[in-house]
Amino acid sequence: xxxxxxxxxxxxxxxxxxxxxxxxxxxxxxxxxxxxxxxxxxxxxxxxxxxxxxxxxxxxxxxxxxxxxxxxxxxxxxxxxxxxxxxxxxxxxxxxxxxxxxxxxxxxxxxxxxxxxxxxxxxxxxxxxxxxxxxxxxxxxxxxxxxxxxxxxxxxxxxxxxxx
Length: 164
Fold this sequence. Notes:
The chain has 164 residues and is mainly α. The chain has one domain (3-161). Helix content is 84%, strand content 0%. It is globular and about 55 Å long. The termini are far apart. The mean pLDDT is 92. InterPro entries: DUF624 (IPR006938). The chain crosses the membrane at residues 39-59, 71-90, 110-131, 138-154.
């Protein structure tokens, strides 16, 4: 259930690495985890539960036969929306101190304004998950590699959108 806080902390460390700031993997991860826990834990729990239920529903609908195509499409739509929004959700938590409404609003805006980055990140994430299912040892570093690669694209988007 702490996947949200851990993901935010991971993006906190990789954000510093991509920007060229000095960082300590352990200290910065713990710092990012502590700073984002209050906000990232409930959001991560909600995202995880919604994704799990949607995937479970899709699995059950596939087992029920072909008469439920509209519900299958709805479940795939929900899964894609959550994944697209999540591309920017946890990096935003790690970098900015926003309220819940602003966080979700900004994640949706960024996900659709930068749809190529969002879709590429979701495709890369899905590919890593599928590859991990076939090669279980890949699970040890798959999400770190994904976060590292996606951090470059996300940091470019943040730099375009935020002028300091």
